[in-house]
Design brief:
Helix content is about 40%, strand content about 20%. By secondary structure, the protein is of the alpha/beta class. Strands 1, 2, 3, 4, 5 and 6 form a six-stranded mixed β-sheet that branches. It has a two-stranded antiparallel ribbon with strand order 7-8. Helix 1 links the parallel strand 1 and strand 2. Helix 1 packs across helix 6.
Amino acid sequence: MSAGAILTYASRDGQARRIAQRIGHILETAPRDLKSEPPGADELAAAPLLVVVAAVRYGKHLPEANDFLDRYAKLTARPPLVLASVNLTARKEGKRSAEGNAYLRKLIAQYCLEPALATAFAGRLDYARYRWSDRQLIRFIMLLTGGPTDPSTRVEYTDWAAVDEFARQAVRFSIEPRQKR
């Protein structure tokens, strides 16, 4: 369905990886961890489509996603980019689009990206999985943003139907000839 598409992710707690895996089922391609197996410049230049799923941690996209998008932005011939940011801000209505999500908007502006498709997905909040210091910092952030602060909270905010729809839209960009975009 999407021969040659490259699907990558940057994740710490596993939710961005899970989202990338779900997208991979529809794209019929295996996701690659940007931390351990980032695609090279030649591979990128030959790809018909690049899909990046990047998690936010403490207000910033993960360094491996930033490094990768910096390399992508420097390519002279860039494949179409489909971009998804995974952050808890996207749990709120109006914070799922590139215009409405500050993290995604800043990422696009930072690298002067022109994604064919961009969205933000809400992640998962599971305090029990975090180290003590991470748990306290995330609880503080949730307090500031009106989210749950109870340390026993486990909430799956990801809208899996939206992930599936995003992947179906991405397929369209992988099968259209480049010159028609």
